[in-house]
Design goal:
alpha/beta; globular; TIM Barrel; homodimer
Chain lengths: ~350, ~350
Amino acid sequence: MSELKNDRFLRALAHQPVDRTPLWIMRQAGRYLPEYRATRAKAGSFMDLCRNAELACEVTMQPLARYDLDAAILFSDILTVPDAMGLGLYFVTGEGPKFERTVRSEADLKQLATPDPEDELGYVMNAVRTIRQELDGRVPLIGFAGSPWTIATYMVEGGSSRDFANIKGMMYGNPELLHRLLDKITQSTIAYLKAQIAAGAQAVMVFDTWGGALSPENYQIFSLQYMKKIVAALPKEADGRAVPSILFTKNGGQWLESMAEAGSTGLGLDWTTNLADAKRRVGDKVALQGNLDPSALYAPPAAIRTEVQKVLESFGTGSGHVFNLGHGIHQHIDPEHVSALVEAVHELSPAYHS
Amino acid sequence: MSELKNDRFLRALAHQPVDRTPLWIMRQAGRYLPEYRATRAKAGSFMDLCRNAELACEVTMQPLARYDLDAAILFSDILTVPDAMGLGLYFVTGEGPKFERTVRSEADLKQLATPDPEDELGYVMNAVRTIRQELDGRVPLIGFAGSPWTIATYMVEGGSSRDFANIKGMMYGNPELLHRLLDKITQSTIAYLKAQIAAGAQAVMVFDTWGGALSPENYQIFSLQYMKKIVAALPKEADGRAVPSILFTKNGGQWLESMAEAGSTGLGLDWTTNLADAKRRVGDKVALQGNLDPSALYAPPAAIRTEVQKVLESFGTGSGHVFNLGHGIHQHIDPEHVSALVEAVHELSPAYHS
């Protein structure tokens, strides 16, 4: 493997000095880019794009061609795992992801496969290897998976949900069944992320999109506990270099202290938590990633610059901060506005590093 | 007006002793009740139902006929105010509320009316008077309005929104215009709630459904500030009795301390905040209302009872707690499960009051 030319992202996660705050953007390879939409049209469905290593590599590289970003993230989806467990993922335009089968009973649970990451999920590992080769050490590659709780919501509901009727009915009414489902997902996710690291992922992120829909107590029991198991099971090093992990629970700002104890290198924050407060609460236990409101990118460039300054100022001086949005970039954002964001981080952040 | 026979709700908000924890349910007059669906079918559209004082009274009374609840809440909608300001509210089945006109410019702002609550919103006041008469002092009647920020999201977006593209573009790009809009809504809301109180509302609640989509700083500036103005402008007494106010920001658990300083009598909490922690954070400044996860009602009755016990236990002994869900009841909840909730509060809560 080529030597890594830009290690700002990894250094910031390790609290090592950097010349400026590293930056990447959640969902940076996405629909806001016309070149992404062109490749997507060429590929067919969203999953066709995920399953084609060359095209997945192409879209992964697109934001790096436009912007001077400090990390690449594998182009894939958190629902590859439950798909490989046998649920049959498909997408309905305007309605989001759906599963042909759901998991609501003992019998459903028994039917679930434990996928071999180099077999049923081999297309993801091929994408990781292809992207690493194409990156040629330019920036690190981030691998990822969904949190067991978040994946379970889709598996039990059969798709996206507003009120989580079925999984919460199970959580309150038959928690033992839910724990066994979460355990199966956790085992599959550990194998999946280990394989991503073996294939070349240099950091991993766990997305807990729906952990914030839980009470503080249930978050500990049904989400954090399983993310902790994942983090503990992953190799801490690969190719002689630390492999950092980042946990991100959307709307998880109320329980940052316990997230900081989960063993990950970093925590992702959405914009509903102030970075200065977060830093005070978690100390040096974890690095912090975030947390510009993605909707700030709807504002004109001058206003974007002001908001970038506020985020940098709230974290303050020193390492341990990875600049990002507080959630994925929206599809209707003007790519020129992203340029304004990138420029602002490049120009304003060196003042926070001596 | 008849003497109030059940004042548990008002006493709990005032931290006065009660024999058991008072209980009402957000959206208690709603689609989960077959009798509501029957009246709604008779009325025509949702707004036809709101505009008909007799039928609005009928649905307000329905949950009280089924369950021994400690408060009634006016059947209406938070969007009556922007409708009366001239935007033309209508509902599209499955898509939620929509406005014929939006507010995105200086010119749009100038067109907005300041509605006279006894004229354009007279149908709401008629409903309040009709319900008070029908209640005949059985339980207190709660009036309500949306928070200016929440109302503004609908006015600027033209309906519900996922990412608040337009209003956040305005907030970050032209905050001065947004402040003038918020100010107009605030003035209309003050007049509206004053009229509800004059017509017979014995407590008022302000619903800030979307304040939790803001950063902590922007929440203060664009939401809480205006709710504070509303609370300060309302009469503290009517008919020789205190008129308590309750502020509720969904996903507002991170900034409870500042909400507790806003001058209201109580705060509504969703289930992502632990009641014991909340009590510790706000002290005796405000009473607390909440906070069972509405999706706990999908579980079987025995599990509902366990969850009710947990909520009661987390608040602990003494007055200052109004039992409620952490958000509105979902339409697919079995009314028998609501019976289980009511029974559990009745049977388990006296132990927390000596």
